[in-house]
Amino acid sequence: MKRYKWVSWLIFILIGLSFAIALIPRAPEKAEETTGLQAYAQIPADRVYTNKEDNEQCLKCHAKNHVEYMAEDAEKPYKQKMYTECIIDTHSYYTSNHWNFKCIDCHTDEYASFPHKAELRFEAIAGCMDCHGGDPQYEEFMFDQIDQEYQKSVHFKLQSESFSCWSCHDEHYYKLNARNRKDDIMSAIQYDNDICLSCHANTKKYQLIANKMNPNILEKHDWLPNQPNHFKHVRCIECHAEINDTLIVSHNILPKDKAVKKCAECHSGNSQLMASLYKYQLEEMGAFRLKTSGLMDQPVLIGGQRNTLLKLIGNLALFGAIGAVLIHFAIRLFRKS
Ligand code: HEC
Ligand code: HEC
Ligand code: HEC
Ligand code: HEC
Ligand code: HEC
Ligand code: HEC
Ligand code: HEC
User: Fold this and answer.
1) Which of 49, 126, 230, 250 could cross-link to 130 by cystine, CB 3.0-4.6 Å?
2) Percent of the chain having pLDDT more than 90?
3) For position 277, what pLDDT does the model report?
4) Ligand 7, pocket-test mutation among 193, 261, 267, most atoms within 8 A of CB
5) Mind listing the pLDDT tens digit for each residue in 263-308?
6) What kind and span of H or E run contains 79?
């Protein structure tokens, strides 16, 4: 009988292992595409790039961690580490809104020579409005209204010298987000919040704009119960931007004392959230139900989380029961042998 003992141990361990594996939380499959400011979408198959070759002139250095450069009268190539902020992520660049731009559509072509001249640092680069302002082709985005709103915002009022549309819209990677991600609201929220956090959680970038302390964003919002969960489920602009019925993305960031602090603005049937973040879904479903978003299938009410808790208890009970049966089975096997 003794020789069967190791068999029952083995079965027991295998079953245990398979449960352990089943319980490991799985990373979402699309995680890589959907994080942060990186572009999220695949390149459409019908896209024809016409400027990749030209861009190689710049990317042979600017897509690399190290620069190799042969000076005219030198014998050996000279090597230098590339500053992180000067490295371009080509995938994000080529999936951005401006995917078919030459580097020198925005930058002066004097950059073609290296070492770059120091004064190029002060080159004037076109802003969104220089290209999109008043252009009927881009009417649906309402650039002119966005510009008006932006000029009322705190950033413009307090820091008009150092702030611009480029401060929030990454010059190389900016990509339309919420309007194209109606079925993936959670990623849309993360993308939009990362725009704000790129300064509000990054003192170096913040202080390039304003020469002052960067307030700790987590502490400033510690009055929100389960603050991390709120930052995952609502966008900063839901509380910080003036409501605007015509724009998809409201651009008037209000002074901090005008921010939404009342819980009922969201946690009630007729909420502020209805007016902005979820308006795409409202359009499509005609009702405040967020089935596909995985957020919740009820209007946002405090206690809406109870379902999750119930599910957890249910799962625990189920696994508990199965576990008990297994242990019982194993003990019987050991006793027999
Ligand atoms: C031989 C390598 C090399 C090539 C080719 C190159 N660069 Fe650069 N570039 C650098 C390095 C290194 C820096 C870091 C700052 C410096 O050393 O001037 C830089 C800095 C820059 C900056 C930032 C300047 C500043 O200080 O703010 C811009 C913008 C830029 N390059 C654009 C371009 C463009 C556009 C092209 C193509 C037309 C290009 N570069 C081609 C190596 C290169
Ligand atoms: C749509 C316009 C646009 C295009 C296209 C563009 N850039 Fe830029 N780039 C900008 C702006 C705006 C800045 C910010 C300048 C500033 O901060 O003063 C910038 C900054 C940079 C910097 C300096 C980064 C830093 O933080 O110091 C580098 C390097 C650079 N660009 C390289 C490139 C290269 C290489 C390409 C082509 C692959 C390219 N850019 C294409 C608009 C553009
Ligand atoms: C140098 C001119 C220029 C500048 C500066 C510029 N754009 Fe564009 N933008 C274009 C062109 C041209 C296209 C069309 C790209 C294409 O589809 O080939 C475009 C495309 C777009 C699109 C995508 C439209 C669509 O139908 O998919 C958006 C959104 C956009 N730009 C927003 C901006 C914003 C925001 C800024 C400033 C932060 C900006 N652009 C700066 C010229 C510019
Ligand atoms: C304080 C940060 C901030 C500034 C400054 C800013 N934007 Fe935006 N903008 C955003 C955010 C966040 C979004 C939402 C991105 C998304 O979900 O597509 C957005 C979206 C947009 C869109 C897409 C709207 C749509 O209909 O899908 C356009 C166009 C745009 N901004 C243009 C501009 C222009 C033009 C300026 C300057 C006059 C500007 N933005 C300045 C944060 C900013
Ligand atoms: C639920 C609403 C809500 C959300 C979501 C929210 N905020 Fe706030 N925020 C507020 C309120 C209210 C204040 C003012 C707090 C106070 O004065 O006590 C504030 C204050 C601030 C301040 C000023 C801090 C200071 O005292 O100088 C900044 C900056 C800020 N928020 C940025 C953000 C960013 C970035 C996000 C997204 C990651 C965000 N907020 C999300 C409501 C919100
Ligand atoms: C490029 C950096 C940068 C980005 C991106 C940015 N901010 Fe700011 N923000 C600042 C700076 C700097 C200040 C402080 C300005 C001052 O006090 O002079 C500020 C101030 C604020 C304030 C406080 C205004 C007050 O009353 O004192 C709020 C609220 C705020 N930002 C919200 C946002 C939101 C929401 C977003 C995203 C849509 C955002 N910010 C994106 C740099 C940024
Ligand atoms: C801008 C809208 C907004 C505001 C303002 C807001 N909430 Fe929320 N709240 C949400 C959303 C969205 C969720 C996510 C619901 C979910 O997880 O299913 C949430 C979740 C919650 C939860 C669920 C439990 C958890 O662990 O996350 C509680 C409790 C809560 N909020 C309380 C409050 C209180 C108290 C206030 C006021 C101090 C407040 N909320 C302000 C939008 C908001």
Assistant:
1) 126
2) 53
3) 59
4) 267
5) 888 887 666 665 565 555 544 433 333 323 334 333 333 333 333 4
6) strand 78-81
Q: Is 128 in the pocket of ligand 4 (CB under 6 A)?
A: yes
The string of DSSP codes covering 115-135 is SPPGGGGG-----HHHHHTT-
DSSP 3-state of 336: helix
Rg (CA), the chain: 27
Q: What is the pTM for the complete model shown?
A: 0.85
101 Cα nearest atom in ligand 2: 5
Q: Is the CB of 107 under 6 A from ligand 5?
A: no
| Residue 14 confidence (pLDDT) | 67
Mean pLDDT (the chain) is 80
Residue 333 alpha carbon to ligand 3 centre in Å: 70
CA dihedral over 317, 320, 325, 326, signed as positive or negative: positive
Q: Which residues pair with 241 in a beta bridge?
A: 253
For residue 40, how far is its CA from the centre of ligand 1 (angstroms)? 26
